[in-house]
Design brief:
Layout lengths: L18 H8 L1 H12 L8 H29 L1 E4 L5 E5 L5 E5 L4 E8 L1 H5 L2 E8 L6 E8 H15 L12 E5 L2 H9 L2 H20 L1 H8 L4 H13 L3 E5 L2 E6 L4 E6 L4 E9 L7 E8 L18 E7 H11 L11 E2 L4 H4 L8 E4 L3 E6 L3 E8 L5 E5 L2 H6 L1 E7 L7 E7 H20 L15
Antiparallel strand pairs: 1-2, 2-3, 4-5, 4-10, 5-6, 7-8, 8-9, 9-10, 11-12, 11-17, 12-13, 14-15, 15-16, 16-17, 18-19, 19-20
Helix pairs in contact: 1-3, 2-3, 6-9, 7-8, 7-9
Length: about 450
């Protein structure tokens, strides 16, 4: 006779039975290379069809071996919710290892569909909690509907709702048009420079000819490859709002859906390339608590830039950021320009250097060719510091930094007078302490749970 699990607990379960074959399918390109290596010079001495069949047979055998090895890991991999409502994962063939992820510290949940997993109708769920070390669980693979159900249950439990509350309703806010995405990628400064280099390469190829010309020609496709990589990543980029946070989905070859819970966005940066200014386009990047890059021990980890919008008109971006930081209009906050001495230290961008604040956020500005406007709520300032290099010391200048969680956004007031930089740091520290005392907790469902 089996007993039912305690209230809130669930029985351990495995991922989908097809998981070993999905993982094996990912190894097929390597298996093909192994097949070619095994046959070696024999390929030149046998008919083409026989060679292809031989490579396929070897690749299938290798893939089957990989599937068998993964099957052992699949049998030992289990996940469940415990009686306290936290998420647990157990794995290991020779050495059993169990981890507990405290969902009250949840930072984000992602549902990802790599290309091969999409063929099988599978998806991966990544659960990230605050902490150091191994604070991420990756559930590979579940049927897409099961993956979405697991994401919803994780978010519901983290928010203190009933585990079977179902998916929270969402309201689409912004979808990036495909034409705008392509145009923005082509108009980036780095793309233009690479395309110019490609023209030079093609000319060198035509003049050089021979083997050296082929060497130069190899680099001709790099700009288009970079553009396609970002296009595939941000294709059909959509931001939606729901009670459990912001939902961001995108992807052409790999579809990724990310949920950013309320209060987890720590800083925002508006990035505008000089070629985008005529259209008044901007990219919005984020520092999100708990988000991190790849893990050296995980070959599938990706160092992903946290992006709220890959491209959008400035007014659209400002409106979306206002939902992240209610009542904040970053472009309307007056900025104090850098002193005249800054021209000697930052002669290209000194006119773009500025710093300002209101009662909610601290704002900095920098960048001549790529302008950056950063926004950091006072309550989410982790620390402040002042730095002064040798050249700055000679000019009586210093830079004031506001430290945030790891991420692409760097909050720095460059090239201020040294005394001003120290005053800025002290004032910002006081504002941060006052904001924390006022109750900026960033907890789930805070302020009605309507903002991320």
């Amino acid at each position: 006779m089996t007993t039912s699990p305690p209230t809130g607990a669930t029985e351990p379960r495995h991922t989908h039975p097809v998981t070993p074959w999905v993982l094996a399918a990912r190894s097929l390109p390597v298996a093909v290379v192994i097949g070619i290596g095994i046959l070696g010079q024999t390929l030149a001495q046998i008919p083409l069809l026989a060679g292809v069949v031989g490579i396929i047979v070897i690749a299938v055998v290798v893939a089957a071996f990989v599937a068998g090895a993964n099957y052992l890991g699949w049998r030992r991999f289990e996940f469940w919710f415990d009686a306290e409502g936290d998420f647990r994962v157990a794995a290991g063939v020779l050495t059993r290892r169990e981890r507990r992820l405290q969902l009250s510290r949840l930072q984000g949940v992602e549902v990802t569909q790599p290309l091969i997993a999409r063929v099988f109708g599978m998806a991966e769920v990544s659960i990230e909690v605050a902490g150091v070390g191994d604070s991420r669980a990756r559930i590979r693979y579940l049927a897409l509907s099961d993956a979405q159900d697991l994401r919803n249950e994780v978010i519901a439990r983290a928010a203190g709702l009933h585990p079977q509350a179902g998916e929270a309703p969402q309201r689409p806010l912004v979808t990036v048009p495909t034409a705008d995405l392509i145009t923005s990628l082509l108009l980036r400064g780095a793309t233009v420079l690479l395309l110019g280099a490609t023209v030079v390469i093609v000319v060198l190829t035509a003049v050089t000819e021979g083997a050296a010309g082929l060497f130069f020609l190899l680099f001709g496709g790099i700009p288009l490859l970079l553009v396609f990589t970002e296009f595939a990543r941000y294709y059909n980029f959509t931001v939606a709002e729901s009670p459990d946070g912001l939902r961001i989905s995108s992807g052409l070859l790999q579809v990724q859906t990310q949920t950013i819970p309320p209060g987890r966005v720590q800083a925002v940066e508006f990035v505008q390339s000089w070629l985008w200014r005529r259209k008044d386009w901007v990219r919005v990047r984020l520092n999100v608590a708990g988000a991190r890059g790849g893990d050296d021990n995980d070959r599938d980890s990706r160092s992903v830039e946290q992006v709220l919008l890959p491209v959008a008109p400035y007014d659209v971006a400002l409106g979306l950021v206002e939902r992240v930081f209610p009542g904040v209009d970053a472009r309307a906050i007056p900025l104090t320009p850098a002193p005249a001495a800054a021209r000697r230290r930052a002669w290209i961008q000194y006119r773009q250097l500025g710093v300002g604040h209101d009662d909610k956020v601290f704002v900095t500005s920098r960048g001549r060719f790529v302008h950056r406007l950063t926004v950091n709520p006072h309550a989410r300032s982790q620390s402040v510091r002042v730095t002064q290099g040798p050249w700055q010391r000679l000019l009586g200048l210093a830079s004031m930094h506001v430290d945030s969680v790891p991420g692409p956004v760097r909050i720095v007031a460059l090239q201020r007078e040294a005394a001003e930089a120290r005053v800025l740091a002290e004032q910002q520290n006081d504002r941060a302490l006052a904001a924390l005392r006022a109750g900026g907790t960033g907890r789930w469902l805070a302020d009605g749970g309507s903002h991320a």
